[in-house]
Amino acid sequence: MAAILFCLSLAWILSCLEAKTITSNEGVGPLCGAHTCATNAICSSRQGETSCVCDRDYRGIGSFVCVPENDNYCAIFNDPSVKSFDGSHVQVPGEQMTFAAHLGTKLCYRNDKGAIVTAAGSCDVRVYVWYCRRRGKFFTCGMLVKVMVFNNSTVKHHTTRIYGEASQGRYIFKEEGQRCEFGNGLFGDPIETEVAGIGRIKSAYNYSNNFAFLDVGVCGIKVGLRPVDSVWDPLITPAGLVVTTSQECEPDYLSVEQTICSPPTGKGTSLEQQAAELSQEVGDTVTKEDLACLKVICGDVNQNFPGAQTNLNNLHETCNSCDKRTLVQAIKQCCFILHNPSFVNCYDKQTDVAYSIVKKQKTVLKKTSKLTSLLDECLFGLCSENSDMCRLVQNSIEDSGCADKIRPNQYTILNSTCEYY
Ligand SMILES: *[C@@H]1O[C@H](CO)[C@@H](O)[C@H](O)[C@H]1NC(C)=O
Ligand SMILES: *[C@@H]1O[C@H](CO)[C@@H](O)[C@H](O)[C@H]1NC(C)=O
Ligand SMILES: *[C@@H]1O[C@H](CO)[C@@H](O)[C@H](O)[C@H]1NC(C)=O
Ligand SMILES: *[C@@H]1O[C@H](CO)[C@@H](O)[C@H](O)[C@H]1NC(C)=O
């Protein structure tokens, strides 16, 4: 009964629920160069360079996360940049919630001998990430994981979202859950899901490395999040999200056209390949950065995370009104708005936008992001070939006094004549 109620839009129910808040220990480990090292990494000095390196039997990013050598991972960390399952890198700017990965796997578990083996049944796991703005850059601060477990003809829905904030090494997390179909309902208290005889889907927090994990071991998947510190240099303990897959659970990489994590080689089309295909289709060069920006901005993802600026949801619709060729042009001339921290800081003075768990509100009480409005107007002007909107955007950039923060020689909407017939 309770579960049914939560899947209806009875907003008043939410007011009587308070999800748990978790506070970690203060402090970080010793510095190694600019960073502290990840769990299972050591500080190494080679040829005068000090850096964190993952231990033997592990691989990853020594300053952020190391995963068992046999696992695949995609990490979205710092500015943010993505290191995909195939090892490729790309920058992904923006504050909107982004579709990171979609995985289909066998059900699996660890047997008495410690080996991971498959069981009857399958999983579908979708991972999303959202960002907070810090000093003109974007850093991860929340994750949403939607899991479906199939066995014979039954399905179990498990959806968890975890978000956090940090100040000088002190991290606070908030976790919420729901069991609605496809994760489309209201969030309430954290949940755990038992999968008959083989394991549970549950969260775990490490108070030493400040990671929150959703352990979907029954599908061979783990999703970890470290939110951004609002005071300390983000390089010390990089913020990010990591998705880890066990090969033993036979993951398939789905929705690769939508997700920001590229599949491993041989398991689907890489971002680079997708960009090449799009270049062919529209007869214009599309870089993987262009494509990443397109995926983030135009993704069909409901921007309903805590503290989301209200105008983030408009972007998808604006993109949808554009044919592909025009959209590619618009992306090339509008994405600079997000890619350039000094422009971001200059144009939108509300530099640090985030939901505050402690204060239960956005630190800056503003319902729309000036930056997102500019982006939306830029895309709209170029997509709809609307001369007035195009000029309006040019004027607001000129009037803001921030035009000199745009990198020299960058091709932007300022290059457009805004003349349409
Ligand atoms: C938690 O983090 C610490 C510090 O990196 C690490 O030593 C420990 O193994 C981690 N615990 C788990 C369960 O991963
Ligand atoms: C599970 O599925 C198999 C075939 O797919 C069927 O033979 C079996 O009866 C099913 N078991 C249950 C408990 O539904
Ligand atoms: C899957 O369903 C079968 C038959 O209903 C059952 O015997 C088995 O324990 C189930 N496995 C899991 C992991 O739920
Ligand atoms: C676009 O304008 C900028 C500055 O106005 C200029 O530096 C750049 O060369 C122009 N790019 C193109 C492709 O015209």
How far apart are the first and last residues' alpha carbons, in Å?
59 Å
Which structural class best describes the helix and strand composition?
alpha+beta
Into which percent range does the helicity of residues fall? 10-25%
Low-pLDDT windows of residues:
9-20
Number of helices: 10
Number of strands: 23
The radius of gyration over CA amounts to: 22 Å
Q: Mind describing the biggest β-sheet? A: 8 strands, antiparallel
Strand content: 25-35%
Average pLDDT across residues?
89
Strand order of the largest sheet: 10-9-8-20-19-18-17-16
* Small-molecule binders: 2-acetamido-2-deoxy-beta-D-glucopyranose
Bulk shape: globular
Signal peptide: 1-19
Keywords: Signal
Structural write-up:
By secondary structure, this protein is of the alpha+beta class. It is built from ten helices and 23 strands. The strands form six sheets. Strands 10-9-8-20-19-18-17-16 form an eight-stranded antiparallel beta sheet. The protein has a seven-stranded antiparallel beta sheet with strand order 1-15-14-13-12-11-21. It has a two-stranded antiparallel ribbon with strand order 2-3. Strand 8 and strand 9 (81-83) form a beta hairpin. Helix 3 (271-282) crosses helix 4 and helix 5 (314-320) packs parallel to helix 9. It is globular, with a radius of gyration of 22 Å. The model is unreliable at 9-20 (pLDDT under 50). The structure holds 2-acetamido-2-deoxy-beta-D-glucopyranose (4 copies). The site of one 2-acetamido-2-deoxy-beta-D-glucopyranose has 5 residues, from loops. One 2-acetamido-2-deoxy-beta-D-glucopyranose binds next to strand 12.
